[in-house]
Amino acid sequence: MKLLPSERQAGTIPDITVIDDETWAVLSDRDTLGYVVKAGSVYVALKGPDRNHAVEVGQSLIFTDAVLLAARR
Question: Given pLDDT bands bounded at 50, 70 and 90, which one contains residue 3?
Fold first, then answer.
């Protein structure tokens, strides 16, 4: 994922970390906001701090869109 400097400075794109080959955690400064899981060619956005209990909030073909869905408050 390529982030423009203005996107990173503005805080519009949250931090992410790799959990495994097909799962990423979406992070705020203090908390885990959700997860993105790759399912075939689709990225599934999950909301919640616990991966086992997170709730699906959307799907996207674009990784950054799924990250933003998982990060919504």
Answer: very low
CA distance 20 to 70: 17
Instruction: List residues bridging with 32 in a β-sheet.
Output: 27
C-alpha 36/C-alpha 18 separation (Å) is 10
**HEC-encoded secondary structure of the chain:** CCCCHHHHHHCCCCEEEEEECCEEEEECCCCEEEEEEEECCEEEEEECCCCCCCEEEEEECCHHHHHHHHHCC
Average pLDDT (1-5) is 48
pTM over 0.90: no
Q: How far apart are CA 57 and CA 73, in angstroms?
A: 11
Q: Supply φ then ψ for residue 52, to 5 degrees.
A: -75, -20
